[in-house]
């Protein structure tokens, strides 16, 4: 059984990320540039080289949970959709004890106003706020009655982002300076964060890296948009952006045009299972009752590389000792791979060469990437 972390271990910070998947534009050359089998693109933001975490990496929008994201001041703005248990979100999945158990990492809340909003609401607000701060995207909806499908067979369509206000730069500066101003912006626009458009997707914990003190417990959400909204990088934390299909992102990574950390590469390969935006959106709606799997990768250092082990792999150990250490072996990666039968792992051959090996069955309605092995000519 998993046991909680010791109090003296490194600091864990709650964070939220939103994977934006946008359909083809209604007209123009950009619409015809996508292969017929890939009817959506993903937003990737390039982080500044001055950032302490993943400098220069291409990532999905996201950041650390702020006390303002949990504030009770949101309640009046969400009314009447603030009723228990989850603000009109899909029914909560049963709570299960999962590995690892972490200490409470909630942000400090002023004036004793702890846990004013449910965690899954606050985390969605965090992801939406960060998308605005980093990329200028407003995942908001006007206040008022929510539209309900006419029948059980009628699924909601993918959403649209809100057109940014003329003074968007001023508002972004305010929000970056103090996250509480995001609520002020929503009130000014008479909108609420569109928490209902964000679907539980996955959860990633930062693996143990000796030189890093801060580690993150990050919720990944997926949001389907009908068309790609205009993106305005903040030019501070984020210096560039691109919309790429999963296969385009993989090719850009292999050609060293961009760099992806293992979780982003894994998620991009997972998303290549979906042929269209409608296919992906339908999966998200059906997947809602499953909740999200939350994983702590365990790093195995080999004689010539590194392997990231995920739950279900035969070498993965649900042992709290591995929260603060890595596995190591004198064997080469190829030897380790030949010996394995029950696999769920990402092999890092070099900075721009990853392989994914999955031989286990996904749980419930979850979906894992297909095996992806780089051509030997790259090695």
UniProtKB/TrEMBL annotation:
Fatty acyl-coenzyme A (CoA) diphosphatase that hydrolyzes fatty acyl-CoA to yield acyl-4'-phosphopantetheine and adenosine 3',5'-bisphosphate. Mediates the hydrolysis of a wide range of CoA esters, including choloyl-CoA and branched-chain fatty-acyl-CoA esters and at low substrate concentrations medium and long-chain fatty-acyl-CoA esters are the primary substrates. Highest activity seen with medium-chain acyl-CoA esters and higher rates of activity seen with the unsaturated acyl-CoA esters compared with the saturated esters. Exhibits decapping activity towards dpCoA-capped RNAs in vitro. GO terms for molecular function: coenzyme A diphosphatase activity; metal ion binding. Its EC number is 3.6.1.77. This is Acyl-coenzyme A diphosphatase NUDT19. Residues 11-266 form the Nudix hydrolase domain. Its cofactor is Mn(2+); Mg(2+). Belongs to the Nudix hydrolase family. CDD domains: NUDIX_AcylCoAdiphos_Nudt19. The keyword Manganese applies.
């Amino acid at each position: 059984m998993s046991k909680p972390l010791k109090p003296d271990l490194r600091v864990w910070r709650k964070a939220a990320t939103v994977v934006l998947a946008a359909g083809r534009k209604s007209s123009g050359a950009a619409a015809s540039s996508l292969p017929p089998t890939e009817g959506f693109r993903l937003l990737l933001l390039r982080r500044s080289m001055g950032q302490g975490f993943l400098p220069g990496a291409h990532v999905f929008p996201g950041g650390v949970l702020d006390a303002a994201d949990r504030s009770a001041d949101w309640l009046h703005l969400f009314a009447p959709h603030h009723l228990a248990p989850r603000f009109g979100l899909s029914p909560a999945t049963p709570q299960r004890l999962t590995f690892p158990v972490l200490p409470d990492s909630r942000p400090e809340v002023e004036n004793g106003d702890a846990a004013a909003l449910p965690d899954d609401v606050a985390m969605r607000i965090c992801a939406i706020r960060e998308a605005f701060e980093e990329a200028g995207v407003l995942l908001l909806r006007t206040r008022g009655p929510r539209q309900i499908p006419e029948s059980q067979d009628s699924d909601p369509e993918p959403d649209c982002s809100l057109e940014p206000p003329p003074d968007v730069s001023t508002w972004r500066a305010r929000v970056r300076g103090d996250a509480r101003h995001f609520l002020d912006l929503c009130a000014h626009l008479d909108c609420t964060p569109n928490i209902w458009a964000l679907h539980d997707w996955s959860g990633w914990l930062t693996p143990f890296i000796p030189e890093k003190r801060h580690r993150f417990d990050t919720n990944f959400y997926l949001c389907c948009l009908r068309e790609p909204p205009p993106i305005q990088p903040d030019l501070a934390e984020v210096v560039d952006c691109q919309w790429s299909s999963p296969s385009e992102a993989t090719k850009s990574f292999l050609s060293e045009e961009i760099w992806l950390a293992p979780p982003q590469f894994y998620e991009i390969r997972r998303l290549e299972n979906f042929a269209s935006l409608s296919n992906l959106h339908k999966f998200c709606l059906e997947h809602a009752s499953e909740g999200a799997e939350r994983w702590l990768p365990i790093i195995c250092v080999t004689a010539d590389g590194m392997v990231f082990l995920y739950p279900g792999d035969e070498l993965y150990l649900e042992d709290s000792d591995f929260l603060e250490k890595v596995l190591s072996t004198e064997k080469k990666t190829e030897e380790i791979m030949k010996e394995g039968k029950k696999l769920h792992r990402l092999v890092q051959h070099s900075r721009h060469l990853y392989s994914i090996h999955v031989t286990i069955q996904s749980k419930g309605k979850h979906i894992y990437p297909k095996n992806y092995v780089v051509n030997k000519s790259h090695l």
